[in-house]
Amino acid sequence: MTRYRNCFLAFTLFLVASCGVGVGDKLIDTASSPSSPSVTVSGVKANYWQDETIAISFSVANMDRTTVNYSISDLDEGYDFTLDSKAGTFRTVSDQYTDAGEYSYTVTATDGSGKTASRSFQFLVDAVVTGSRFFYKDERSLQITRSRDGLTAVVDGYAVFDAATRGYRQDNMICFGETSVNGADISGTLNCGGRLFTPSGFETVSRAQIETDVNDQGTGSIVFFGSDGAQVAVWSESEGYSEEIEDFRGWPTNTEIPGRYLPFVIAHQYHYVYSFEEQPWFFQPINSFDMPEIVIGSDYKIVTEVPASNTSACVLNGEIGQLALDEYDLVHGDKGENWRNSLRVISGELQATNCSDVGVRSSGISIDQPIGPFMARLDRLDEGELVLRFYGSGVDRPFIFAALKVSD
What we know:
Distance between the termini: 49 Å
Number of helices: 1
Structural class: mainly beta
Number of strands: 29
Radius of gyration: 25 Å
Strand content: over 45%
CATH class of the largest domain: Mainly Beta
C-alpha cells in the first residue's frame, strides 16, 4: 500500500481537509442468537478526519473473557492502525495522520475453549484539505483556497499591455462556493464572476466544477463554464503542477483573531484599465471613508464600527464558525503536523449591507451579500501584522477584500 503522506489534491486547496464528523454505527452482527458467543463493537463513528484519533473497543458475551484474543482480518498492523489483541482496543497509530478513504474490517474473538464470534464494522476517513496553493499550467496560475468545512475559492488575474493606450488591461476571475469531501474524493460547483484568460483570449466564466481524488494524484480537474453552459476551459492536474503557499511563522492562535481590523484593499470586479504609469495589480485600495472598521469580539462575533470621521453606511454582521476554531487543536495535535505550515483558513457566516462602491479606482465594487458563508485566509505581513483576506459569494458575484488588524 502506498503511503500518501503528501497527497493534497493539486489544486483543490490545501493541506488540511474537510468534511464533518457524522454519527451512527455501521455494524453487521453475525451472531445468530443472544445465547451464542458474540462480539460488540463500541466507539465507531461513520466519519473521521485524517488528523483525528480513532479509538474503537471490542467486548464479548457468552465467552471466557479471561482467555479471549481478538484478531482483525486484513489489518496492516502498525501502518494506520494498531490492535491490542488482549485488551480489545483498535486505535490509529500515534504521530501520523490516517490515509483518507473507506475502511471495512471484521473482528474475530476466540477464547481458550475454542469459542469464536465475529462482527464487521466500517467507517470513513475524510481527507483534510484546507489552506491555499497555486496551480500552474502553461505559465499561467490559479490560486485555490479552501476551508476545512468545504468553502472554496478559485482566483485568477491577468494583465495584458495595450500598445494603443500604453496601459494595461486587467481582467480578474473569482469563483466561490462549496466542495464536499467523501473519503478521498472532493467535488463541487463554484459560482464565478469575471473573465478567465485562455489560449484563445479572455472568456467570461459563470461557474467552475472541481473534482479530485487526493489518493490518486494527477486525476483532478477544474472545468470552467460560460453563462450559456458551454465549456470554456479545463485545468487538469495531469497537465500542470501545484505548490502550497506555506507560512512557517505558524498558525495565528484563536486568541490572536479577536481585535479591530481596517479594510484596506479589495479585488477588482472584474476589469480595470491602468494608465501607463500604473503597475498591474489584482487589488485596489479601499476608500477609508467608504468602509467601517471590522471588530471581531472575544466571542468571535463580527460587527462593524464607524469612526467619527467616517461617512460609511456599510454594515457587516457575522460569526466565525466553531469548526474553524476547533481546527486549531486538531492541526496542533499529534496527527496534524502535515498541515501546520499551511496558511490558516477560517470560515463562518457573514452579512454585508450598504457596502457597495467601496473601491478607489473604479466604481461599483461591492461586498454586499445576504447572510451566508464566508471564508477568510489568515496572512502575516513581514513585521508580523495579521491580515484577514475575506472571500464571499456576494449578491451577484463573488468578492475578495483584505483587512489589517490595527489593535486588540
